[in-house]
Amino acid sequence: MHLPFPPTLLIFLVLLSSLSAADWTDRLDNNKDWGIYRGDKKAIQYSELDQVHSGNVHQLKLAWEYLHGNPSGPSMYSNPIIVDGLLYFTTPTLDVIALDASTGDQVWRFNSAPHTANGKVFRGRNRGVVYWEDASGNHERILLFVKDRVIALDARSGDMIRTFGEQGFIDLRKNLGYPPEKMSIETTTPGITYQNMLIVGSRVPEGNLSTPGDIRGYDALTGEFKWIFHTVPREGELGYDTWDWEEGETYGGANPWGGFSLDEERGWVFCATGSAAGDFIYGGNRKGQNLFANCVLALDALTGERQWHYQTIHHDIFDYDNPPAPVLATITEPDRTRDVAVQLTKMGLTFVLDRQTGEPVFPVVEMPVAASDVPGEEAWPTQPFPLLPPPLVRQVTYEADLSRITPETFDYLLKEFRKYKTGPLYTPASLQGTVTTPGHLGGVEWGGAAFDPETNVLYVNANEAPTISRLKPLDEENTQSDSPYGRGYELYHASCVFCHGLEKKGNPPLYPSLEQPAKTPEEVKTLIRSGNGIMPAFTQLNQQQVDDLIAYLFEEPPTPSGGGSNTSDSTAEESDRSPHYAQIAPFFVDQDGYPAISPPWGTLNAIDLSRGEILWKVPLGEYPELVRKGIRNTGAKNFGGPVLTAGNLIFIAATPDEKIRAFDKYTGKILWEHPLPAGGYATPSIYEINGKQFIVIAAGGGGKPGTRYGDSILAFALP
């Protein structure tokens, strides 16, 4: 008999094809290399390295600094990964740079601009890349996420792998069941791999013209599409009956924009989804519980089959996304161990779920919450409240909670506060305006948390940043107008008002005013089509809709005709639709722009997960301008996560005072701090090369704190 392969090769291929899930494990899924976003696939942000410890951390010095050469927006959120001596990170223009991890010298740089849809530079938020190799350690590649594309690069040379996907990339607009040209997709957080599967999430628009936030699996070698999980259920699927569907509305969102964690032993991938869309702080056109929005999900990583889900908010009308993927911790007790999935939230609530079943480890009570008094809205009557651990942040703002950093501050805030409604967590937006606490940038953000497997303690940073949630009925004269200006008015208030404010006034410093656009109409058209930085692309708009938006932004409103209102047939056809509102959610701040609630505005917290107790809480960060006035220890809004080492240290940057700090894990005491050339709104990485331990941070500035931009990657080590 003639064999097509040599006998030894045939035996090898048979053995390779029979590998079980337990046989193919990722060599980088450990707590030493930091070859995976957030450190390992369980996202515990922990390093077993202890060369740098609480006794010598004060000796840390800058080992090297790399400048990528483009210190402008958006910020660098990249959490660098380190594989076989190379450090990989992404820039604000979505280039990938590989550095010698011991010296910071550039090895290669991949310019993504020629490989975007229009062949131009795309500036976007991006938290890093994925490294993948096959079961034999071959086909080593870096997977880069550029807006709506996944590009594969040779890990050693940086060369694009042209055989990947259809034309050298995966087009994420496809395989969603809708015309690709109508889909607006951006991947801001790297996917995750399991064996030969690449699993990808997305960021999608939050307005009425959204895109489904579905989760998809692709072949990591070929780029071939393999499976999809619909986070907005289709007819006949589980969860479909938890939505009230309204004809003529677009449904999307429910996207896991904060990435994934993965249990290799179970073969399950975990994620946490955000709010449903359309709309932001209003859900009258998507009444119901809205599965699988605001859910922790466990899926089979090879098939996408749902294993379990747990919803943290029903019918989210607060923009309380679940920002980070769950932390997959193992709690060690005297008589047993227990695998859990820990979900951190913008509400400051911590859900500790059994990893096998999704059932809460500590009691969770469905408690009645405030009803909405806004016509068309039906707030869900109850919400889940975990009894343990306690909330990380305050859940309501009373007059007594207003900031008193100066007497003038309190006087100003008291007058403002009395203009609005207020109430405990889950008090809905109102026509008058509701002070919502902790606010849509409060609680825990996308930086996640660090878990100590030795002590069962979770370390996490949190924000307190109340917002004013207000709904304004859209102007009937404009919404019924068939003029370009009138149609643009409705489009703007359906999709743009969340960021750019009522009457185009903006929400600075993050979102600029559009009352007098700094760009030309043609430049704005390009921006609408392609997106930039924190602004998503609105590719789902047709040419007339874009022209209508331009008319609203640049033209004077038409003079009302004297012949009465326009009551066309279209008005009658829309009479059964839920009311639509402009949705306004500025931060509730004092006269100088600081949070209206009394400090601390940002904290670092230690939670004992075995008992559900908060062990300590300390302010995180300061505002330099307040420090100069003698106002200290206020904490600050912080973006980026902590990492923990076996040297009993928590490293975190994240703050607008542009510092990186090391805290003692037992007490929360600051043991070391170092100024950065710009804010480090990213999560540090910890690794070892040639026997030396490094702590590296991306210092890109900008971001939601709005500080100066930078272009530095900095590594610290002992002398």
Keywords for this entry:
5-stranded mixed sheet; Lipocalin; 719 residues; mainly beta; 10% helix; 9 helices; disordered N terminus; Cytochrome Bc1 Complex, Chain D, domain 2; 4-stranded antiparallel sheet
Explain this structure:
The protein is mainly beta. Among the domains are: 31-75 and 445-465 and 601-719, Lipocalin, CATH 2.40.128; 475-558, Cytochrome c-like domain (Cytochrome Bc1 Complex, Chain D, domain 2). The protein is 10% helix and 29% strand. The strands form eleven sheets. Strands 1-34-35-36-37 form a five-stranded mixed beta sheet, with no helix packed on it. Strands 2-40-39-38 form a four-stranded antiparallel beta sheet, with no helix packed on it. It has a four-stranded antiparallel beta sheet with strand order 3-4-5-6, with no helix packed on it. The longest helix has 12 residues, at 484-495. The radius of gyration is 25 Å and the shape is globular. 52% of the residues are buried. Mean pLDDT is 91; it is low at 1-21 and 562-574.
Show unreliable segments: 1-21, 562-574
CATH class of the domain at 31-75 and 445-465 and 601-719, named Mainly Beta
The strand line-up of the biggest sheet is 1-34-35-36-37
Structural class of the helices, strands and pairings? Answer: mainly beta
Tell me the β content: 25-35%
User: Under the CATH scheme, which architecture of the domain at 31-75 and 445-465 and 601-719 would be assigned?
Assistant: Beta Barrel
Write down the Rg: 25 Å
Largest sheet: 5 strands, mixed
- Which fold name fills CATH's third level, the topology of the domain at 31-75 and 445-465 and 601-719? Lipocalin
